[in-house]
Amino acid sequence: MLLGTQRVNAEGHLEIGGCDAIDLVKEFGTPLYVMDEETIRENCRNYKAVFEARYPKNDISFASKAFLNMAICKVVEQEGLSLDVASAGELYTAIRAGFPLDRVLLHGNNKSLFELEMAMDFGVGCIVVDNLLELRQLKTLAEKKGKTQKILLRVTPGIDPHTHRRISTGQEDTKFGLSVANGDALEAITEALEFAPHLKITGIHCHIGSQLLDAHTHEQAIDIMVGFMRTIADATGWMPEDLDIGGGLGIRYTEDQHPPSYEEFGDTLIGALRAALEKYDVPEPRLLQEPGRALVGETGTTLYTVGVIKRVNIPQDPGTRTYVTIDGGMSDNPRPQLYDAVYEVLVANRMGEAKDQEVRIAGKHCETDILIQSTKIGHIETGDILAVQSTGAYNYVMASNYNRFTKPACVFVKDGEADLVSRRETLDDVVRLDIIPERLA
Ligand SMILES: Cc1ncc(COP(=O)(O)O)c(C=O)c1O
């Protein structure tokens, strides 16, 4: 499974964006997040083009929680997408990167007053309101500042997307948004409309879950959301102009996963939207989306150096297991621990060799941080370079300093050039926030 610009070069090495992975390791060390810039750009363009062709009244935001630093803000801006942020830190990154803030949406289920005020002061295009407390706080702030803030209201369509429970958000039993079914969402909308001119509600939002390998739940969500638009219009006389259906499209982590292509996803979504608009007699809204994983997930590869290789006896067949240990683990990729995530791995300096042994890939943390439970690879030695694929989403951004590990560097590769976009942390970075109080000195 080679993804994006991944190739095998004449030396039998993995190449990404025209860069030899082994040269990248020599220059930047390991662990290393390698992001395939051309494929990110292509994904942004293709996703946009698919929806432009099927439903021109639309806007695509990149969900920055999936992958964020200042460099990606530049790429997203250049490709004409908007940006979804969900914290002061994500917003600050966009601000520092000079991202046009009228193209930013602020999310969050428990936004602080600081975050709300920051968003308003910097002129964030839209705040996606999650709850009544936030709605009222926002109205007070807008009033105080003499501003009109555009908002969407996040609602819960009440459907279970059947993905990992930790990334399911559309069901009734959730911390996100307000329920359509129990009337909370309609009540909040009625209140929001009364808060004009301080707040200008433009529509409704939902995000049903992530890593969805078909579009069935999106279809159901669209039907419920458009039905709810009709309910809102009948109850309040106001028809939402924006319908935001969040993100959620899955990617290939392993060869046996087959998410819909952007085209298939677009056909299903727009088919469902047009059918629902007719069914509920609703005029065309602007369709907003916030894909994260689908734009960057397959564009990331993490390179590690193999350290200890250990064979242990196990009671089940074949009686032994080989542990291949890498120089990273749960601090640079917590997804196996969080979501039982699965990954494919390549031996970057021995591409094309027969995969004749089954191994377990382990991290080096003081936990049983197994990165890959079981995978087939060829010959492997200490010092070899492992390339874990599809680590572009929810990896770099989820990195921690557990065991006081330094966070890895991140490079963008394109046309044979590699640029550092986030440097590796140093040991000094690890202690930079520590303070020894006088009495302990
Ligand atoms: C509100 C919202 N929008 C968009 C996304 C992006 O989801 P994905 O990366 O699955 O496309 C998320 C992910 O958690 C989210 O919470």
From TrEMBL:
<feature type="binding site">
    <location>
        <position position="394"/>
    </location>
    <ligand>
        <name>pyridoxal 5'-phosphate</name>
    </ligand>
</feature>
<feature type="domain" description="Orn/DAP/Arg decarboxylase 2 N-terminal">
    <location>
        <begin position="39"/>
        <end position="296"/>
    </location>
</feature>
<comment type="similarity">
    <text>Belongs to the Orn/Lys/Arg decarboxylase class-II family. LysA subfamily.</text>
</comment>
<feature type="active site" description="Proton donor">
    <location>
        <position position="366"/>
    </location>
</feature>
<feature type="binding site">
    <location>
        <begin position="290"/>
        <end position="293"/>
    </location>
    <ligand>
        <name>pyridoxal 5'-phosphate</name>
    </ligand>
</feature>
<keyword id="KW-0457">Lysine biosynthesis</keyword>
<dbReference type="InterPro" id="IPR000183">
    <property type="entry name" value="Orn/DAP/Arg_de-COase"/>
</dbReference>
<dbReference type="InterPro" id="IPR022643">
    <property type="entry name" value="De-COase2_C"/>
</dbReference>
<comment type="pathway">
    <text>Amino-acid biosynthesis; L-lysine biosynthesis via DAP pathway; L-lysine from DL-2,6-diaminopimelate: step 1/1.</text>
</comment>
<comment type="subunit">
    <text>Homodimer.</text>
</comment>
<keyword id="KW-0210">Decarboxylase</keyword>
<feature type="binding site">
    <location>
        <position position="248"/>
    </location>
    <ligand>
        <name>pyridoxal 5'-phosphate</name>
    </ligand>
</feature>
<dbReference type="InterPro" id="IPR022644">
    <property type="entry name" value="De-COase2_N"/>
</dbReference>
<dbReference type="InterPro" id="IPR002986">
    <property type="entry name" value="DAP_deCOOHase_LysA"/>
</dbReference>
<feature type="binding site">
    <location>
        <position position="339"/>
    </location>
    <ligand>
        <name>substrate</name>
    </ligand>
</feature>
<comment type="function">
    <text>Specifically catalyzes the decarboxylation of meso-diaminopimelate (meso-DAP) to L-lysine.</text>
</comment>
<keyword id="KW-0456">Lyase</keyword>
<keyword id="KW-0028">Amino-acid biosynthesis</keyword>
<feature type="binding site">
    <location>
        <position position="335"/>
    </location>
    <ligand>
        <name>substrate</name>
    </ligand>
</feature>
<dbReference type="GO" id="GO:0030170">
    <property type="term" value="F:pyridoxal phosphate binding"/>
</dbReference>
<dbReference type="InterPro" id="IPR009006">
    <property type="entry name" value="Ala_racemase/Decarboxylase_C"/>
</dbReference>
<feature type="binding site">
    <location>
        <position position="394"/>
    </location>
    <ligand>
        <name>substrate</name>
    </ligand>
</feature>
<keyword id="KW-0663">Pyridoxal phosphate</keyword>
<feature type="modified residue" description="N6-(pyridoxal phosphate)lysine">
    <location>
        <position position="65"/>
    </location>
</feature>
<dbReference type="InterPro" id="IPR029066">
    <property type="entry name" value="PLP-binding_barrel"/>
</dbReference>
<feature type="binding site">
    <location>
        <position position="367"/>
    </location>
    <ligand>
        <name>substrate</name>
    </ligand>
</feature>
<dbReference type="Pfam" id="PF02784">
    <property type="entry name" value="Orn_Arg_deC_N"/>
</dbReference>
<feature type="binding site">
    <location>
        <position position="293"/>
    </location>
    <ligand>
        <name>substrate</name>
    </ligand>
</feature>
<dbReference type="GO" id="GO:0008836">
    <property type="term" value="F:diaminopimelate decarboxylase activity"/>
</dbReference>
<dbReference type="GO" id="GO:0009089">
    <property type="term" value="P:lysine biosynthetic process via diaminopimelate"/>
</dbReference>
<dbReference type="Pfam" id="PF00278">
    <property type="entry name" value="Orn_DAP_Arg_deC"/>
</dbReference>
<protein>
    <recommendedName>
        <fullName>Diaminopimelate decarboxylase</fullName>
        <ecNumber>4.1.1.20</ecNumber>
    </recommendedName>
</protein>
<feature type="domain" description="Orn/DAP/Arg decarboxylase 2 C-terminal">
    <location>
        <begin position="34"/>
        <end position="392"/>
    </location>
</feature>
